């Protein structure tokens, strides 16, 4: 499925794109829902049956769609970086699959006060490219939310830590669902934290050491999120930080962290990963963080689900292991603190 364009006019949001019908399907039914925006549109459905249907072009592989969502308020409330989700439905109304897209105007990035400077983006994203930095943050935030909401609504967590927040690629979008006074962040990168404090003055961002403990009290958080942290630690620091997460979580709290699973492992490390369940090597991005960590700290790490389930308990339960659940690349591990200490 692809969203090729969108416009706002006359109190409606127009969405144009295409969808693959799917093998054996005589028609495609799409339901579009606006996400993360002040306006609440009326539900809209579009049925594509054949090439004679209005606004539909049938080909061997796909059908184009042209949907209008009526908005309950003035069209101007549709802000850049709202999002729309399409649900593809079966004939009986069951959801076959979903796809979400950011309604974005890349031209607006030039004056975006929440876009970090290029050097900070490079450390986190591996590229200076602004649209990719933003879009990856949005996808990761949605995937983290989906993992959390297997257990509780994202807005129900009273105190949340973005552990390793960097320059806010994830926090920017988590703050759509979590109030600023309940969403905290920390990182070893002092320059990134200084920028975050200026960009998000209502939130609490702190510099932490590469080694625990962190500057938070015991049992401080209901939810801790760690994206691209355990993907870059050697085994000694991996275990130290697992112990620290256990200390920081309140009884029954969750930690959702990403790992490189076997699907992300390069071929030259595959045999070692299969044999031992864990392997790491020097990271090409290590030089960005050496001023904070020293040499040989920052790695590129791969683990198997079996290794995580057998070695990561450290007083925490493995509530879920979700393959390729973060941006279809990282695996997600959901750790849960015991209900009582």
Detailed description of the structure:
The protein is of the alpha/beta class. It has two domains: 2-103, Immunoglobulins (Immunoglobulin-like, Sandwich), CATH 2.60.40.10; 109-336, Rossmann fold (3-Layer(aba) Sandwich), CATH 3.40.50.150. The chain is built from eight helices and 16 strands. The strands form four sheets. Strands 10-9-8-11-12-16-15 form a seven-stranded mixed beta sheet, sandwiched between helices. A four-stranded antiparallel beta sheet has the order 4-3-6-7, with no helix packed on it. It has a three-stranded antiparallel beta sheet with strand order 1-2-5, with no helix packed on it. The longest helix has 19 residues, at 130-148. The protein is globular and about 55 Å long.
Record the strand order, biggest sheet.
10-9-8-11-12-16-15
CATH architecture of the largest domain: 3-Layer(aba) Sandwich
Give the helix/strand class. alpha/beta
Please name the CATH topology of the largest domain. Answer: Rossmann fold
N-C termini distance: 47 Å
Q: What is the mean pLDDT?
A: 86
Strand content: 25-35%
């Amino acid at each position: 499925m692809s969203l090729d364009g969108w416009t706002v006019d006359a109190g409606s949001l127009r969405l144009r794109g295409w969808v693959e019908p799917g093998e054996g399907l005589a028609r495609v039914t799409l339901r579009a829902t606006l996400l993360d925006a002040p306006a609440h549109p009326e539900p809209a459905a579009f049925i594509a049956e054949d090439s004679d249907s209005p606004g539909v072009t049938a080909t061997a592989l796909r059908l184009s769609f042209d949907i209008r969502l009526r908005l309950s308020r003035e069209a101007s409330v549709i802000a850049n970086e709202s999002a729309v989700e399409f649900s593809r439905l079966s004939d009986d109304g069951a959801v076959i699959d979903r796809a979400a897209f950011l309604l974005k105007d890349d031209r607006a990035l030039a004056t975006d006060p929440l876009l970090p400077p290029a050097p900070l983006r490079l450390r986190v994203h591996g590229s200076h490219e602004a649209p990719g930095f933003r879009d990856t943050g949005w996808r990761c935030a949605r995937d983290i939310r989906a993992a959390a909401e297997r257990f509780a609504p994202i807005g129900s967590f009273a105190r949340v830590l973005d552990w390793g927040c960097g320059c806010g690629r994830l926090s920017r979008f988590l703050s759509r669902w979590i109030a600023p006074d309940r969403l905290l962040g920390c990182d070893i990168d002092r320059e990134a934290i200084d920028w975050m404090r200026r960009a998000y003055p209502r939130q609490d961002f702190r510099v932490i050491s590469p080694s625990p403990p962190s500057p938070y009290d015991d049992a401080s958080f209901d939810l801790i999120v760690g994206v691209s942290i355990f993907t870059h630690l050697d085994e000694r620091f991996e275990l130290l930080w697992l112990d620290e997460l256990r200390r920081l979580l309140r009884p029954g709290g969750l930690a959702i962290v990403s790992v490189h699973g076997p699907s992300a492992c390069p071929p030259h490390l595959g045999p070692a990963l299969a044999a031992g369940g864990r392997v790491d090597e020097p990271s090409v991005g290590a030089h960005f963080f050496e001023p904070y960590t020293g040499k040989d700290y920052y790695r590129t790490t791969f683990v198997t689900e079996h290794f995580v389930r057998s070695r990561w308990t450290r007083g925490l339960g493995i509530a879920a292991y979700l393959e390729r659940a973060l941006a279809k690349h990282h695996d997600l591990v959901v750790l849960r603190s015991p209900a009582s200490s």
